[in-house]
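Changelog note: in this version the structure field was regenerated for every chain. One regenerated record is shown below for reference.
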Amino acid sequence: MSHGAPELSIVIPVYNEEEVLPALFARLYPALDALGRRYEILFVNDGSRDRSAALLRQQFEHRPDVTRVVLFAGNFGQHRAILAGFAHSRGRYVITLDADLQNPPEEIARLVSELEAGHDYVGTIRIQRKDVAWRRHASRLMNMLRERTTRVRITDQGCMFRGYARSVVDAVNQCSEYNTFVPALAYTFAMSPTEIRVAHEDRGAGQSKYSLLRLMRLNFDLITGFSTAPMQLFSGIGIVIALLSVLFVVFLIVRRLVVGPEAEGLFTLFAIAFFLLGVALFGVGLLGEYVGRIYDEVRHRPRYIVGTVLERREEPP
């Protein structure tokens, strides 16, 4: 591999993936070597508690010409690992890829072709997804919700196998949000985005790191981080409920004057009161999401802390 700035940077976040890393190495490097381009692979170890960091060190020693390893000082999350990879990348094009081998590394060439065709953002849509049913259904539901509340148009938001031009990566690197959804943030800076369909395989080994709770948290970040539509929706709901409440009170007054005192409707009133209380509590929780994001921002804490970077130092000419 010749020296100089690489044309292609592959960013791979790693968290407790010791079981699948050997298979990833065996497929990733031949696929990239076959491209005939200068490339670099940036592994970002997100505070793994297994032997992932040790395996990444070994791989760096084996292929120091194209391998760079960023070791976090703790666990900061997949998207912050990708942001760290962006910050350390040098390629004209940047491809993000999960370490679990559900997206075949052999398809990287297809993303590069789209980037070279003039697109600055290449999203992917998984065909014949191998995930469990509840994840597929939840993904469709969140896609519909996101499209109705934000301007981000991503068909398959859960797929991190994506390509970015340097201009988009540089724009993302200038942002300082504490919590963000990287594909959506990058999409807002893209001038010529596109999407392609890619294969999806069974997980190479290990288990998914995204529980239902973490997926819900991620989607809350996505919706509240890129739109105020949920707050506007609840403002509209509040106005409608207030008007209906006034009409209901007028109706009860008229009914009392016409029919006289009644007690049969007591449980109906309880049901209405509990419903309105639930709506109010949900609205307070939604408001809390936005306030929490503001709180995270004003603390100005670092998004991640890098412990060590393994890379070969370029010798001066």
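Spot check on this record: The chain has a mean pLDDT of 84. Strands lie at 8-14, 39-45, 67-72, 93-96, 121-127, 162-165, 193-199, 306-310.
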